[in-house]
Write a structure and sequence with these properties.
The chain is an alpha+beta fold. It has a single domain, classed as Alpha-Beta Plaits. Helix 2 packs across helix 3 and helix 3 crosses helix 4.
């Protein structure tokens, strides 16, 4: 009877310990903010001029200061409807901790670029005429681990 109890205890411990010893399915990587935008019809030139003269230079400074690790712009080649997004932006951070205090890190960069809060606010109002945000979300890059051999 004692032996049966010992076997049951060992099996119970093994079942409880199994999830603790199981390996993760992937290695966590960078975190990215995806921003999907709809360019206002007829404002394509103004939209891209703003990207070149304001957005890209601030992203370059964010990258230089280590606030982001990278950024990219992308376009959608096939629209699914009149309210669909047409341009996307990806801002990449080293990890989720990179999002901590993000406004405090980015604010000095944008204030320097625009020359003050009023100029920045004015640029934001003009930008809103060029396009609207359809959706924004965070994604995490993962690298699946190799299958383990039994």
């Amino acid at each position: 009877m004692r032996r049966l109890s010992l076997v049951a205890t060992v099996l119970a411990l093994a079942v409880v310990a199994l999830p603790c010893s199981a390996q993760e399915n992937f290695v966590e990587g960078t975190v990215s903010r995806i921003i999907l935008l709809k360019v206002t019809p007829g404002m394509n030139s103004e939209f891209w001029a703003d990207i070149r003269s304001n957005i890209k230079p601030t992203y370059e400074e964010y990258k230089k200061q280590g606030i982001i690790t990278d950024y990219s712009f992308f376009t959608k080649t096939s629209l699914e409807g009149p309210d669909d997004w047409s341009v996307g932006i990806r801002l990449t951070y080293k990890n989720f901790a990179g999002l901590d205090g993000l406004v405090a890190k980015m604010d000095p960069v944008t204030l320097k670029h625009y020359g003050g809060k009023d100029s920045r606010a004015s640029a934001a109002k003009k930008r809103a005429l060029n396009g609207t945000t359809v959706k924004t979300y965070l994604i995490r890059e993962v690298d699946p681990k190799p299958m383990s051999n039994p």
